[in-house]
Amino acid sequence: MFIPWLARIGNWNAQLFRELKGRLKFRSVLGVVVLVGLGQAVVMGLFASALPDNGTVTLYCDIDPDTYECLLNDQGTMIVLWQTWWQDILHFLNWVVMLLLTMPGVYLLAQDIEREEDKGTLNFIRLSPQSARSVLLGKLLGVPILFYIAIALLLPLHLVAAHGAEAPGDFLLSFYLLFGAGSVFILSVAMLFGFLSKMQTLTGGARMGSGVALLMVIANTALFVPSYFIWNLATSWNYYLPFLIEDQVPQPSQLRWFFLNIGGIPILGHGFTLINLGILTGLIWQAMERCYSSPGKTLLSKSHSYGVVIYLEVLALGFCIDPWNTSETLQTSQFMALSVLNFGLMLGAIALFCNHRQTLLDWARFRHLQFHKNQGQAGQRQGRSLLSDLLWGEKSPASMAIALNLLLIAGFMAVWMLFNSRLTEPNLHLAGMALSQVFCLLTLALYGAIAQLLLLIKNPRRILVALCMISVLTLLPIMVGNALRDYGLATSGLRWLVLFSPVPLPFVFEEAWFVSMGTVLGGLVAHVSLLSILHLQLARQLKRLGASSSQMLLQSVRQG
Amino acid sequence: MPQELAIATRGLTKQFERHVAVNDVDLEIQAGEVYGLMGPNGAGKTTLIRLLATAEEPTVGEIFINGDRLLRDRSSAHLKQHIGYLPDDFPLYDDLSVWDYLDYFARLYKLREPYRTQRIYAVLELVQLTNKRNSAIATLSRGMKQRLSLARTIIHEPLLLLLDEPVSGLDPIARMQFREIIKVLQEAGMTILISSHVLSDLAELCTSVGIMELGFLVESTSLANLYQRLSRQQIIIRSLAPVDHLQAALGNHPNVGDWDQLADQTGLCITFDGDLAASADLLRSLIADGIPITEFQRTQEDLETIFLKLGHQQAS
């Protein structure tokens, strides 16, 4: 099926050309046209069957409030609520359009990347001078092309329904804009997951096959699309609620972000959603470009991780800083939400930028050789300093970067507490929050060190081992707390338990509030000791990995 | 760095756990050479080629292509354009036709019309797939797929070709076709690094060879030098007389070493350390002794014999 414009597209983007060539077969395109035509006919038929006929009362006839029968016009025919009818078709099509693109789109993209990685064909494209962005854009535009065609074929009916429903023009524009941005975001996530399915660091070498693609479809359908619609109804489309939901009057929205009324002013709502989707999509593309250009690298570099933490903390803090809030209950829930976000962020960080055994082996060996080279050239300082390498280096262990990220988080939590202390008198409640936050962050630093140590083990499923271990360590304090409470030991037991939980336990168990100064100091000493032991062990293992084979052999002979 | 070298590596090392797959390799290949990489399974040949193709990142060490440092990131995009890499497996896209597949890669390498079409025809002709240009890739035989992969590897006229076991699994005719293509590419001035277990192919194609063992490059020299140092001269002698008569006649000759009986029992293969005049003397003395000679052929130990003689160790 040779089309001259296809050749022109090929000159612009070779990858898009390849995807279109492989997919735009006459039979496939004809199949899509027929299916979309049939689908539209079925939808219109179903809605037509709901129209009032021969005196049947339906949703779409103007009902006499006294007789509950359809009103008749001068000609003696029933008065049909055509606007409501078209409105329902439009709302139905809004969901269809979103799901028709994203459901198969995420599946096809995740599966396509996974298959190319698995077969090894992507390696040849990597060797070409094409940029990662150009190749990935070609995939994004080309792989779901048949479904883009289906959406294009659905658009006339969507526009006709919008016209019949007398939809505001700006709503239609808003719908297409937010639909486009949301689709690009979720399809990009799907592509990233396609890369992840092949990352041995995550799966331990096991092939995940179409599992990742199916997981993406479920996450998209059950999670992303509904929550995206709800979010838009609460922000950008709050103004259009009377049109979108029958008999709904627009509520003066309380949703604010750093004093900006994103729920009440449509332009702010749109700006906020689109800018954040843009930033998130940009971050995903950066991660994808890393996966594409250097397979085996972590998804995030250390420098990116600092940016991501700052961005997400600012985003979350914006929702938690409210000058009109003086309620202690709301403060507590905001604090808990921020703490859970911080915990999630650190778990994510462990998964996304902690280097694994092979990379750390390369790093340790390189530094070992660099050290001996520098010794040989006395007085000449070569290579990067260890500190700078630990904070910014691509292959170095992540412990120092985790510590810096925790400091950033602590800074943002301090801002939140300072802001809240301005609103209410400094009190025990806020002091308790500050203290529990310190111990949460220290516990997260411990988790970071444990995770980095576990990522050094030989087991190929080391990331799963690390994540399982962290999950167990997280759940343990809550489970033990419950058990202690059942045995009436809550007060004494929880005093210690609170010091080793990554989420603030005093807000789960009230008894945990009563912690003495001695326990706090003891906890601090315990944390510092544990962190020192774990990092010494990490340094020892890295030194061992970096040593030459003959050195290891001689050592074992001596020990033997 | 020396500019005349197509490939130069300095202390190139790749370590997987405690296994050092490539160990401190200093490889130098002159531009225009066909360099054969030999070695037992697990010696590190594939890892070395993958490192040169940037498919793998070295633990330590540096790679220079035409004098420029090759890195895995985007900074080496211009160098990667000069590299063609054919791995031992050759994944293809079954949903495309032969022409579309080459067209796609020609576009990836930014070849413009009309040169793109000319180039696709040229490589199709070279790999003898012109008549298959509209066939679906799924319908091609293994040999054809191998040749199509080679066509894809050279579509952008790389200066350096890295071929990892390119003839493995091919029948003798397909292997011969492949050899002919490599010769044409060599004549076109490409530098070719080829790893293979079929040493007779390497002997026919290569100008230099390297031998890898347990991750080390233990030998790297021109083929002529290798033969000169390690290959013994042999003479195959057949006669109508019984073999023991021939053995008796050879017994006193000063240049004759040990010998092996030929498989068909009609003669001997002897090692001989004399020059041309000495071999003429030997022939003359055998005839004088009344041995009815039917064949007298001077030859050398082949690459396979030399390789086996070196007794290289297999990685375990």
| CATH homolog superfamily of the largest domain in chain B | P-loop containing nucleotide triphosphate hydrolases
Helix content of chain A: over 70%
Instruction: Return residue spans of chain B where pLDDT drops below 50 for at least 5 consecutive residues.
Output: none
Radius of gyration of chain A over alpha carbons? Answer: 29 Å
What is the H/E order of chain A?
HHHHHHHHHHHHHHHHHHHHHH
Mind telling me which CATH architecture of the largest domain in chain B this is?
Answer: 3-Layer(aba) Sandwich
Descriptive notes:
The complex is a heterodimer of chains A (560) and B (316). Chain A is mostly helical. Chain A folds into 2 domains: 4-49 and 81-239 and 252-293, no CATH class; 308-372 and 385-549, no CATH class. Chain A has helices at 4-12, 14-23, 26-49, 82-119, 121-127, 132-142, 145-164, 169-196, 200-203, 211-234, 241-244, 266-293, 302-320, 328-353, 357-376, 386-392, 399-423, 428-454, 462-486, 490-497, 517-546, 549-559. Helix content of chain B is 34%, strand content 28%. In chain B, a hairpin with a 2-residue loop joins β5 (60-65) and β6. Classes of the chains: A mainly alpha (560), B alpha/beta (316). The interface between A and B is large, with 33 and 39 residues.
Keywords for this entry:
heterodimer, A: 560 residues, mainly alpha, 2 domains, B: 316 residues, alpha/beta, Rossmann fold, 3 domains, 6-stranded mixed β-sheet, 5-stranded antiparallel β-sheet, 11 helices, 15 strands, globular
How is the secondary structure organized here?
The complex is a heterodimer of chains A (560) and B (316).
Chain A: H1 4-12, H2 14-23, H3 26-49, H4 82-119, H5 121-127, H6 132-142, H7 145-164, H8 169-196, H9 200-203, H10 211-234, H11 241-244, H12 266-293, H13 302-320, H14 328-353, H15 357-376, H16 386-392, H17 399-423, H18 428-454, H19 462-486, H20 490-497, H21 517-546, H22 549-559
Helix pairs in contact in A: 1-2, 2-6, 3-7, 4-7, 4-8, 4-10, 8-10, 8-12, 13-14, 13-17, 14-17, 14-18, 15-21, 16-17, 17-18, 18-19, 18-21, 19-20
Chain B: E1 5-16, E2 19-25, E3 28-30, E4 34-38, H1 45-52, E5 60-65, E6 68-69, H2 77-80, E7 83-86, H3 98-108, H4 115-126, H5 142-154, E8 160-164, H6 172-187, E9 191-195, H7 199-205, E10 208-213, E11 216-222, H8 223-230, E12 233-239, H9 243-250, E13 256-261, E14 267-272, H10 276-288, E15 293-300, H11 303-309
Parallel strand pairs in B: 4-9, 4-10, 7-8, 8-9
Antiparallel strand pairs in B: 1-2, 1-3, 1-5, 5-6, 10-11, 12-14, 12-15, 13-14
